[in-house]
Amino acid sequence: MSEHLQEEKHEQVGKVGITVKEGVINSLKAINEIEAEIVTLAKNTVANTLKATGDVANDGVVVIKDVVKGAILATEEVGTGLILSTKSVAKGIVMGVSDVGGDILSAAEQTVKGSIKGASEIGADVGLVAKRAVDGILEATKEIGGNVEEIAKVSVNGAVEAAGTIGNTAVKAVKEMLLGVVEGLKEVASSALPKVDKNK
Predict the structure, then answer these.
(1) Domain count of the fold of the chain
(2) So what's the pLDDT on residue 76?
(3) Distance CA 79, CA 81 (A)
(4) Maximum Cα–Cα distance across the chain
(5) Is 64 inside a domain boundary?
(6) Does residue 48 sit within a domain?
(7) How far, CA to CA in Å, does 39 sit from each of 140, 191, 193?
(8) Tell me, what's the pLDDT at 80?
């Protein structure tokens, strides 16, 4: 093959790579925009509903359950997206509860539990959904200046507890997924996730 043909071939392959790169970048930008919209939707829905009822303490749990259920029903209808949307919905819920001065510890726990229960009901990956929910909750907590360690502890405990109602496989999956989340929070990891005794 002549040098000229070789160069043309490289150029073509290079163009294909650039086309794919640009396509992926545009898709990722679109995903980020969609995620931001879901955060805003969940946040506003929670905050506005709790403001309207005027009883943040008592109505919070019901509103959170409904928002999580709505997100799960949407992904069921579309047939995909629960893993992607869970983080944004969880983040929005915590921010919405924070906006109206509600208990974000309780919001974090309810959101994780609802997400895991819903994931199990529709046959989604419980471990991944738990991780995405906790990621969203921790992201929101950092943004609103909450106590990240305290929230992480409640979220992880809530996730393990919810997984326990599903079965041992779910508990194992959730613990494995959340180990990475709490690795940076030493105190949380030691108190929330039981250590495995290697001597047994």
Answers:
(1) 1
(2) 80
(3) 7
(4) 78
(5) yes
(6) yes
(7) 10, 30, 28
(8) 72
